[in-house]
Amino acid sequence: MKKSNWGFWGFIAPSLLAFILVQLIPTITGIYYSFTDWDGIGKSKTFIGLRNYSEAFTTDSKFLHAFIFTFAFTLCAVILVNLIGFLLALLVTMKFKGSNLLRGIFFMPNLIGGILLGFTWQFIFVQIFSALGKKLGISWLLGWLSNTETGFVGLLIVVTWQLSGYMMLIYIAQLQNIPNSILEAAQIDGANVFHRLRHIILPLVAPAFTIGVFLTISNAFKLFDQNVALTNGGPANGTQMLALNIYNTAFFESRFGYAQSKAVIFMVVVAGISLFQLKIGKSKEVEL
Amino acid sequence: MKYKDRIKGLMILMGVIVAIAWVAPVFILLNSSFKSLKEIYISILAFPKEIVFSNYTQAFEKLDFVQSFTNSIMITVISTLIIILFSSMTAWVLVRNKSKKSTIIFMLFASALLVPFQCVMLPLVDLMSHLNLMNRFGIVIMYLGFGSSMSVVLFHGFIKNIPLELEEAAMIDGCNIFQTYFHIVLPLLKPIMVTVSIINAMWIWNDFLLPQLVINKTGWQTLPLKTYLFFGQFAKRWDLGTAALIIGMIPIIVFYIASQKYVVKGVTDGAIK
Amino acid sequence: MRRILSLILCGMLMMSLLSGCGQSSTNAKNEGASDLESVTVDIFQNKSEVAQQLEAAAKTYMEANPGVVINIETVQGNDYNTALKAKMLVNDAVDIMALGANDIVNNYKDYLEDLSDQPWLANVSDGLLEDAKLEGKVVGLPVNIEGYGIAYNKAIFSAAGIDASKLTSYDAIDQAFSDLQQKIDSGALKAEFPQLESVFEYAAKESWVMGLHTLNIPMANELGSAKAALEADEIELKYSNEFKDLLTLLTQYTSSKEDLKLLLAVDYSTQIGGGLAIERVAAVQQGNWIGPEVKSISPEVYENLDFLPLPLKGVKEDSIAVGVPAYWCVNKNADEATKKAAKDFMNWLYQSDEGKSIVVNQLGYIPAFKNYDGVEITDPLSASIQRYVREGKTMPWVFGGFPSGYEGQSASDIQAYIGGETTWDECIQALKDDWKALKK
């Protein structure tokens, strides 16, 4: 097909220009800024070599803590979100009256933004939990979000509540691809529910797990809004995740260059995870 | 058979219990939003003794709801529309024009998916303030820039599978490139358009950080940003806070109920592709 | 065909919307200099308890001055500094901001308009402009005078037979709290105050309560002024033992005394709305700013509020801490018309008769000006502070000179001690180390 150059560039220009302006230039300049002592918008940037990076890797205990916290959080979220998402998918694909309503209910939190979710659960954890705990004399319901542990579990609950329904949809799509004939044949052969689950459903849903796992990783690792609204990193920065740590370094400590160097480290990790995902996805395709 | 039915019944019962737990947070909010602050502090678990509706009128006013809702709608709709239009145009010529430059440009768009927002946030704001784009017009451009990566990739995947014949026929009939695109190609893209617009609209509607950095000025703020500021101001006035959260959820829930089919399709397709 | 048409229409609509959007945003970005009809002053302030009243005041002003639009936005406490920094990214998003001494000298020095020529300058009470100076020039208007101590409910104390006027030393207060707790536990006050469960509540979750206000008590006695704090590269914390006693007093009569970890969950709203205002507790460490919130929940409790001193044992036992919480500064990068309108509004609010009455009666402020004769303070806590000021029983606020970021650090150091994670010596060492690190 022949097209004039004019047509080609004309069609591409609007999104390409916006893309260059908004993503490409900032990414490149951002890498440069990470080697400077930049301390605010419009301020001068002096090249200081690797000093930001060496600080991030050696002396910044808050950054290290945020890193560990984020990794641990992501790991737990991946397991919990996908397990619950899969169970929900199994549940609502059993044909019964109202299964569509349940599907709708489980997915709904996913549409509500992180800021609203965070404040909603802050209310539940702090006010409702403590009132319940006092009334029923259950001590573990008291003092939520006042230490790192309950902050961690709290964030986990919020993210599970939000993402499980999303994963459920992905698993439903995959479950519906399983031909009924296979299941029926198995049933006639005398396979009970658990046998069918283990030997037929799980292997056939496996590709969707790859998608589910990496979508959860990407969401959990970059979590920001929920973190801000639920705990804002507190108490004592104990629940500060990477994205929030970068944000606070810039806007609370006024160290833009240093925040940028952390952001570059963050990018390397995120890109690494995503490339790993692509690779796994590719090899899975071959298997299928 | 009986055993199977019993298991099924048990599962359904469990499902209903889980579903109740799932909506409980929203109902708790709703319940508290009709109480006075004093009642929230004294008997938070009970039903409201008398319905206090003033929380809603006050929260509505404090959220500057009409203004922030309009801002949110305008920004979301306009950004989504131009993302669909421009990324589908880009994806189309990239697919149809098989050349090295097409591959490079496509890879450029795709590789940006690896870059987290935190990494471009500070230099972007620096650049935009020099260009005087720190306003509602600028944020639409930024959404186009950020949204185009994912959208071009999705459109690209879809257009690859559209046969060429129709377009060739149109060209032979004398249609120019614009006519071919708008008359022939665009209508064929409808299914993927739904997906792309749902994904982008959901993200843009709920986005908090970019509006906070770019349009954090009285009169410009979007609903999530205003909600955040609301909680900053009323430091846990939970009588108003619960009402504000319910108000913020209503548009989303209404939209979801009205277009559940498309939302579910859009979200699933977007994830799997 | 129809589908194609609708798509094209859709596109056209979109284009028109887009251009409409562009236009409206340029409109909103007031080109006020040329067009006096639409000067907009954006105020970003940090006192949520007066946000509503301040908006009402702005409305009054706008009715009298149709050419001016005053927008007021409020973010409370620790979040304010982060929010302000993010906001300053947007060109002229803020015209008047509320800053402390450290912000003025360090973080925002490139933004501050010289206010030395303003008419209100001569009327400011003595000594209150020291922290508002940048290179010798006054750049901020003192918003008000505030004080904090132990705010208590007179009705509960007198029902328990405690004479609060004698509570002027650490030991006397400690004894009174202990007596009151016994009466509560024995059920003697149950009939009159059914919600009452403990003497005290301490908002240990709020970094400003611990990391600024409580820490200020030993620091004020060590350093003497915010200026000294700004200049100190290191701190000695020579009253660390007395500071520990103070923390003991503030924590051991709370409802979380059995397990102090739980105290770290207590936030401002639990302390005030869910504590003092519903008579669940009888006393808190807070300042006169709690008045409006208590009043909105229970006017009776509000009328019964008064201050006890916040005692540093053996050093200064009968005083409360009084200071200027923030200064209103004008963004010098705003255009001339906006800056003029901003200054005019500040002048009107603090110096006109109408404004003075709003400042005292609506905002509940204790004015930082000498020329407020004839305006009577009615707020019980503010009146109490005025008494302490008259008797000279005050300590300064020095936390305005704490380095940026110290509030969060110091609060988490003290929280770690209260939560039982560190010993007192470790806590003191951490407070010193963090100071030194942030001063670098």
TrEMBL record, chain A:
A Pfam family: BPD_transp_1
PANTHER family: BLL4140 PROTEIN
Predominant localisation class: membrane
Transmembrane segments: 7-35, 63-92, 104-132, 152-173, 200-221, 258-278
Protein's name according to its UniProt entry: Sugar ABC transporter permease
Subcellular location: Cell membrane
Keyword Coiled coil: no
Keywords, sorted A to Z: Cell membrane, Membrane, Transmembrane, Transmembrane helix, Transport
Domain (ABC transmembrane type-1) ranges: 67-277
Organism annotation: Fusibacter ferrireducens
Bilayer topology: Multi-pass membrane protein
Organism ancestry: Bacteria, Bacillati, Bacillota, Clostridia, Eubacteriales
InterPro entries assigned to the protein according to its UniProt record, in alphabetical order: MetI-like, MetI-like_sf, UgpAE/MalFG_permease
Family: Belongs to the binding-protein-dependent transport system permease family.
From TrEMBL, chain B:
Record-annotated membrane-spanning stretches: 12-30, 73-95, 104-125, 137-159, 180-205, 240-258
InterPro entries linked to this entry: MetI-like, MetI-like_sf
Residue ranges occupied by any ABC transmembrane type-1 domain in the UniProt entry: 69-259
Location in the cell: Cell membrane
Assigned keywords, A-Z: Cell membrane, Membrane, Transmembrane, Transmembrane helix, Transport
Listed Pfam families: BPD_transp_1 (PF00528)
Topology in membrane: Multi-pass membrane protein
UniProt similarity note: Belongs to the binding-protein-dependent transport system permease family.
Name by which UniProt lists this protein: Carbohydrate ABC transporter permease
UniProtKB/TrEMBL annotation, chain C:
Source taxon at top rank: Bacteria
Coiled coil: none
Keywords: Signal
Pfam families reported for this sequence: SBP_bac_1 (PF01547)
Leader peptide range in chain numbering: 1-20
UniProt keyword Isomerase, yes or no: no
Entry-linked InterPro entries: Bact_solute-bd_prot1, SBP
PANTHER family linked: ARABINOSE-BINDING PROTEIN-RELATED (PTHR43649), DIACETYLCHITOBIOSE BINDING PROTEIN DASA (PTHR43649:SF12)
Name of the protein described by the UniProt record: Carbohydrate ABC transporter substrate-binding protein
